[in-house]
Design brief:
Elements: E1 2-6, E2 9-10, H1 15-29, E3 33-37, E4 40-41, H2 43-50, E5 55-56, E6 68-71, H3 74-83, E7 88-93, E8 107-112, H4 115-123, E9 132-134, E10 157-160, H5 168-177, E11 182-185, E12 205-208, H6 210-219, E13 222-227, E14 230-234, H7 240-245, H8 259-266, H9 271-284, H10 287-307, H11 312-333, H12 336-351, H13 355-360, H14 364-374
Helix pairs in contact: 1-2, 1-10, 5-8, 6-9
Length: 376
């Protein structure tokens, strides 16, 4: 199959963009023809090209039409489906806060990365359950190889998150209480790593969620689920199955963010149990298995489209409605509120890097309330 993988950007090392890299290289290894497209390219696009996956920033550069378009947002996916009227669409949703998929006739199948997202797709967005597949998040086991056995007591800790600036102070306080040195890597603190597989094995405890948590577990670190929105448990052999169903993400972060809650989880560190967690993750969260499942979804979408081809008039009606719905959002982006929101957001994360300023900032809850008010 010829599969076009679309994204809003292929620039910054974020979860959704790296998902495209892993899926594309997995498809290529299986003899398929992946092509990536995004209106804005950068280092992630170069990484794809280094793996011999073609990357386009203009849909007219694609000489042959795809069989399937794999999309992660409405705008770029609809543009690609309009450009290639014979292609079937597959819409992937990565998180609870993803935008609601637009009901375009040729989107034949949907993919959720966990039960949390699937519940919203079928329980709030009206997508039929028989059209939604759950393909849980994964990691490339060839890159993230097991580290040597963990020490009986933790020696080094890492906060591993692109949004680390927002909760770094709390994690640092918890580690200080435990006498545990803490390092941090992520975009918001200016220390993003292009090769986390070379980094994670140096740490005994990793604070992370989602894809970052899976990568750390695959290497063999003990993982405590943590984000600015809350604290989850230390991942153990007892809870790893249920937490994987939540993608080690938002639904698992059930306790308010506090140094006390994190310190309690640090105290539960168990080197032998962490090794068992790593073995489990390596058996159920491989890139190869996920790509095989995605290929099955692509084949279903392609076959459904072939059996009942979409009508051009139906496509046009759907896009007409989408453009009308897009109008208020475009107007908002040009408003004073939008400019204020962007300025405050940049300032907030910038000041999180300055210890003195960080103590003077509003709490995360207050910042989120202000964000919601500005986005109305």
């Amino acid at each position: 199959m010829r599969i076009l993988l679309t994204a809003a950007t292929l620039d910054t090392r974020t979860g959704a963009e790296l998902y495209i890299v892993d899926v594309a290289t997995g498809l290529l290894a299986r003899g398929h023809q992946p092509v990536a497209f995004a209106p804005r390219l950068g280092p992630v696009a170069e990484r794809l090209r280094d793996a011999t996956v073609p990357v386009a920033e203009n849909l007219d550069d694609l000489g042959a039409p795809p069989d399937v378009v794999h999309g992660q947002d409405n705008h770029v996916l609809l543009a690609a489906l309009l450009r290639f009227p014979g292609a079937a669409g597959v819409r992937v949703c990565h998180g609870w806060v993803d935008e609601r998929p637009w009901p375009f006739p040729r989107i034949q199948r949907y993919v959720a990365v966990d039960d949390t997202v699937r519940d919203r797709m079928t329980g709030e967005w009206g997508i039929p359950t028989d059209r939604v597949a759950t393909v849980r998040n994964f990691t490339d086991l060839r890159r993230f190889t097991p580290r040597p056995p963990l020490p009986q007591a933790p020696v080094r800790a890492l906060l591993f998150s692109n949004y680390a600036a927002a909760h770094l102070a709390v994690v640092r306080e918890a580690c200080a209480r435990a006498g545990l040195p803490l390092d941090v890597t992520g975009l918001s603190v200016g220390t993003a790593s292009d090769r986390p597989e070379d980094l994670l094995g140096r740490y005994d405890i990793v604070f992370a969620k989602g894809r970052c948590a899976i990568e750390a577990m695959a290497v063999g670190a003990a993982v405590i689920l943590c984000d600015a929105s809350g604290v989850g448990p230390l991942v153990t052999t007892t809870n790893v199955h249920d937490l994987h169903r939540m993608n080690f993400g938002l639904r698992a972060l059930s306790s308010p963010l506090s140094a006390t809650a994190l310190a309690q989880e640090i105290a539960r560190y168990d080197a032998a149990d962490a090794a068992g967690v790593s073995d489990h993750i390596r058996s159920v969260a491989s890139l190869d298995e996920a790509v095989d499942r995605l290929i099955g979804v692509y084949e279903q979408a392609r076959d459904d489209e072939a059996a009942s081809p979409g009508l051009p008039a139906d496509d046009m009606r759907s896009v007409s409605a989408y453009l009308l719905a897009l109008g208020p959002r475009l107007s908002w982006t040009q408003s004073t509120r939008a400019l204020t929101y962007q300025l405050l957001r940049r300032t907030y994360f910038g000041l999180q890097r300055v210890p003195v300023a960080r103590r003077l900032l509003a709490g995360r809850v207050l910042a989120q309330r202000l964000q919601r008010r500005l986005q109305r």
